[in-house]
Design goal:
This protein is of the alpha+beta class. It has 3 domains: 134 residues; 108 residues, Butyryl-CoA Dehydrogenase, subunit A, domain 2 (Beta Barrel), CATH 2.40.110; 162 residues, Butyryl-CoA Dehydrogenase, subunit A, domain 3 (Up-down Bundle). The chain is built from 12 helices and 10 strands. The structure holds flavin-adenine dinucleotide (FAD).
Length: 434
């Protein structure tokens, strides 16, 4: 075997020159130039500040975004910078972010998703655990303490809805909760696909007093160091850096202070969380699409074939401009939705009235449905426009392509969004008095 050569793995097909042009700084510049005419100064300033932090952080820590890179230890640094969640001002935990709301969340998401799409996706799951505590902390000290730990990045969070036998049909749960004499509950059952589950210090989980009865659902906050909590990791190859959990609860005791919504309140809390969850996914999908368009636009302006930059060939240029135009339009729509949402929250002093929140359900489903479908198309086609270089793992195209295919499943699949929308359409028809 003397002559046997050792095979070396290489991840780079692209020239060093073009790879440098694809830097985070340049991709941010492309994005900012696009958004210049549609963002107001407050949003642009926040976006630039978050971008500056990400550029420095990447450089200072020699972050390569390689497939085997770990990222959970970055979370406290992003927490210190106030980049975990800006959905609320968080006055109750002494943070008082002056820049907050859904439009600011879009800016935060654009900055983080360009930096590292898988890191941004994992952060989204912490936000899903933040929201129910924010709305239902009732000034109970332990709830505020956990809320602060999430928002400041002390630990990631997770939300546990899905079960092995109950995915889309989330309200007919099998995980049970039995009330004890002292007001605590014992939880028994199984959850699966919980993003951050194996890494989270605390999670928010749903269970039901009677199996398959949505009217008896309850919502709990769980400390993952408690006895009765057991979590394995589910490996999802499309997002290999995100830790996803499969949990077993065995007589897991939840004390009174950790009950966010008692029996009968769970379903309401679940639906309340779905609007911000779907909008959050729409923000992520839109950010991923811009990242993919930025990669492709920089690439085709530099890559030459037949002695010309490939952008100048109609097959390339017209495809990219078609995607670019559709993304620009949907971004403007999404931004308007976010700004209107923020206006209403301000008008009603923090919380949206129930009927208004209900009216946002269709909009949230529409944006989730539309942006995820668009991101799936854009990430694939943008990689395609980069030829072989788009298929290597030394750019973020690989991550973007894979994540874009997951977005259509999480937070309610494409078909479930269609189902929700068809019911909403019926409602609108009835309301129109025709
Ligand atoms: C990477 C990843 C991360 C996730 N993170 C979380 C998380 O943090 N927390 C959490 O609780 N869950 C999480 N999930 C779970 C996710 O929300 C579910 O996978 C999703 O809701 C679909 O459930 P299911 O996988 O059981 O598919 P199923 O419900 O079994 O669906 C199978 C197929 O049937 C279709 N279908 C089902 N019902 C209908 C219907 N009524 N009409 C038309 N079509 C239908 C679906 O669209 C799908 O195509 C995650 C999943 C993944 C893959």
């Amino acid at each position: 075997m003397e002559n046997e050569k050792k095979t070396k793995f290489i991840h780079q097909a692209i020239s060093d020159e073009i790879l440098e042009k694809l830097s985070l700084k340049n991709r941010y510049s492309f994005l900012n130039t696009n958004l210049m005419t549609i963002l107001d100064q407050k949003h642009m300033n926040f976006l630039r500040k978050a971008q500056k932090f990400c550029i420095r952080y990447e450089k200072k820590n020699n972050i390569t975004h390689a497939p085997d890179e770990e990222f959970y230890h970055w979370i406290p640094d992003f927490g210190k910078e106030g980049l975990i969640s800006r959905a609320h001002p968080y006055e109750e935990i002494d943070l008082n972010f002056p820049d907050n709301g859904l439009a600011i969340e879009l800016m935060r998401c654009l900055a983080l998703s360009f930096f590292d799409p898988q890191f941004s996706m994992a952060g989204g799951a912490t936000i899903l655990a933040i929201n129910p505590i924010y709305y239902h902390h009732e000034n109970i000290p332990i709830r505020l303490e956990i809320l602060k730990k999430f928002v400041t990045g002390e630990t990631p969070g997770a939300i546990l809805i899905t079960e092995p036998e109950r995915g889309s049909d989330a309200i007919h749960m099998l995980t049970t909760c039995d009330e004890q004499e002292d007001g605590s509950f014992l939880l028994n059952g199984e959850k699966i696909f919980s993003t951050n589950g194996p890494k989270a210090g605390y999670v928010v989980a749903y269970a039901t007093a009677e199996k398959n009865n949505g009217n008896t659902m309850a919502q709990f906050l769980i400390d993952t160091s408690w006895e009765g909590w057991n979590c394995d990791r589910v490996m999802i190859p499309w997002v290999p850096k995100v830790w996803i959990g499969h949990e077993h609860f065995t007589n897991l005791r939840v004390p009174k202070d950790y009950i966010l919504g008692g029996v009968g309140k769970g379903r309401e809390h679940l639906f309340e969380g779905l609007v911000p969850e779907r909008i959050g996914i729409a923000l992520d999908a839109t950010s991923q699409s811009w990242n993919a368009i930025a990669h492709a636009a920089i690439y085709v302006n530099n890559r030459k074939q037949f002695d010309q930059m490939v952008l100048k060939f109609q097959g390339v240029g017209f495809l990219l401009t078609d995607l670019w135009a559709r993304l620009s339009n949907v971004t403007q729509g999404l931004l308007r939705f976010c700004e209107k949402y923020d206006e209403k929250v301000e008008q009603f002093g923090g919380d949206l009235p129930k009927n208004l929140a209900q009216a946002m359900v269709a909009g949230a489903s529409m944006y989730k449905y539309h942006t995820c479908a668009l991101s799936k198309e854009i990430c694939y086609e943008a990689a395609n426009l980069m030829g072989g270089a788009g298929l290597c793992d030394n750019t973020l195209m690989h991550d973007l392509l894979n994540i874009s295919r997951i977005q259509e499943i999480v937070g309610g699949s494409r078909q479930i969004q269609n189902y929700i929308l068809s019911m909403a359409l019926r409602q609108i028809y009835k309301m129109s008095g025709i």
